[in-house]
Amino acid sequence: MTATIDRLWTHARLATMAADRPGIGRIDDGVVAARDGRIVFAGPRADLPAGLTVAETIDCGGRWITPGLIDAHTHLVFAGNRADEFEARLAGATYAEIAAKGGGIAATVRATRAATVDDLIATALPRLDRLLADGVTTVEIKSGYGLDLESEARMLRAARRLGEIRDVRVVTTFLGAHALPPETTDRDAHIDRVVAMIAPLAAEGLIDAVDAFCEGIAFSPAQVARVFEAARTHGIRVKLHADQLSDLGAAALAARFDALSADHLEWTDEAGVAAMAASGTVAMLLPGAFYFLRETRRPPIEAFRRAGVAMAVSTDCNPGTSPMTSLLLAMNMAATCFSMTVEECLLGTTRHAARALGREAEIGTLEAGKACDLAIWSIETPAELVQGLGALPLHARIRSAR
Q1: CB atoms < 10 A from the CB of 283, how many?
Q2: Which of the 8 DSSP states describes residue 365?
């Protein structure tokens, strides 16, 4: 233990989310001590070493402290909006029908290609600020609405800049294999271009992970595998939009490439669950898209539980199928629509979300050595974070380390 600490939060109840404690790692009389942006102690007040020199003490007044929340699957950077498609779906149009008429992702591609980096930042900031108001300290942001090298790079540069403009950790994901761009009907040719984009984007430091959309309206398992092989060549981890609308064996494909996460998963079968369990791939659950598209087939939550697959929860913030900017609401939807427990929802936006980004050594729990990313809540029980609809219980958000 360091003899001098910068800040000490006292009179707090902690949900540490630490794996060596049961459940959410509850500590009723807890303290958190930090130095140089790192947690040096998080635990019972009675166990805090004596004789410390404390520069600043913060009395939490009995409030709860959790790790800063992590939104580990978003499409936060884009231009335009697709409210007209919402009306079309209300009238009975399906996701696939809208896409076939040039809507869906293609509509956002047209608007995003016409936007500058500054335009993209300006439109994304209100969405990001709303997430921060929910206690989010880390957000993943995907590209995928440019679908050519220049436009994808602009999206990723905008995402990086957001992490400089706001005090938030931004993790970027290249999603060039999101959809077929309007200028071609040749899926294999587009995959060739996506593979070629990885090297220059990686050289510019714009990619933390590579993603793809494996679906009948997007790309086949074989095409996705080519993208993932290229990512592997550059030492970049992968994740996958998998089994959202049909079962193409995408969860198992993700596991074969040791993916950080497989996301959506409504149609994942037992073989996919087993493969994910064996590889340690996180199940990224996105109840916003399930709700917004009025789907009826739920991800195999009980099968994930039996197999010990870690489950994360995210907003999937995007312009067409999950225009949601509240991670607390995503937790409520995961509980209500997917029958996840309060504990699963809370772990799914902290420890398991960190693992889905490959950042579990850095963030996601209140433990010595981790970044001092905290969310302090004016609540009586952590269940309120999952129960509330439109509630704003955040008292303070601290992100002490980048």
Answers
A1: 30
A2: S
pLDDT 10s digits, 203-244: 999 999 999 999 999 999 999 999 999 999 999 999 999 999
Q: Model's pTM, two decimal places?
A: 0.96
Cα→Cα distances 157→113, 142, 345, 372, Å = 14, 11, 31, 26
207 near 197, Cβ under 8 Å? no
As a whole number, the mean pLDDT across the chain is 96
SS3 38: strand
Residue-level pLDDT at 18: 98
Question: In percent, how much of the chain has pLDDT > 70?
Answer: 99
- What angle (nearest 5°) sits at the alpha carbon of residue 329, between those of residues 362 and 393? 75
Question: Read out DSSP for 54-82?
Answer: EEEEEE-TT-EEEEPEEE-S------S--
Of all residues in the chain, the percent with pLDDT exceeding 90 is 90
Pair of tokens at residue 389: 């609809």
> Angle of helix 149-165 relative to helix 187-203, nearest 10 degrees?
40
